[in-house]
Amino acid sequence: MALKLKGIEYEYVEEDLKNKSPDLLKYNPVHKKVPLLLPNGKPISESLVILEYIDETWPGPSILPSHPYDRAMARFWAKFLEEKCWPAMKRACMSTGEEQEKANEEANEVVMFLENELIGKKFFGGDTIGLVDITANFIAHWHRFFEEFSEIMQPPLITKDKFPNLCEWVNDYTNCSFVKENLPQKDKLAQLYMGRIQAAKAAAQ
Hints:
Keywords: Transferase. It catalyses: RX + glutathione = an S-substituted glutathione + a halide anion + H(+). It comes from Penstemon davidsonii. Residues 67-192 form the GST C-terminal domain. This protein is mainly alpha-helical. It has a two-stranded antiparallel ribbon. The chain is globular and about 50 Å long. The N and C termini lie far apart (39 Å). β1 (36-37) and β2 (44-45) form a beta hairpin. It contains ten helices and two strands, in the order ααββαααααααα. The chain has helices at residues 2-6, 22-27, 47-57, 68-94, 97-117, 131-135, 137-148, 164-174, 177-180, 186-204; strands at 36-37, 44-45.
């Protein structure tokens, strides 16, 4: 999304993380995971590090705010999304029964911080898409998925009744042209999600 926002051409290569390619192991021997950016063959790993590199390297719309305080706040919320929000939402989406009820409660508590952060704003940074919005991309595309396949997860994690600001943000974000063109296909998300659910159930037996 950051490269699209900047208008930078790139080659996208998917990785099978169950059968990691020699290139991934070569260029990211420490973590052995994606995402990985290879500008001129020089590897850069970790999502937030990559986003800041893109912003500092190429011209175009800024991803980080210009004011030091606003930049610090953007980094704070981006880290919150990666370290708190994503794990909590993942647990809620991957668990079942009583465990899911508890996980939903924990996820709701975390997501409410994002809901409050969006009060009076179109995007997390104000009127334009920035670092926090791109980091929160997973919320936007998974929310679309669960809206369409609502029978998969009951009760839904994010609803307009509980999180009106966040739902409005999802709508505004996913309707930006460069975002809409590059969101994951819903059938692929369904296949991925159901595969992980089945694997989790098998591991619990």
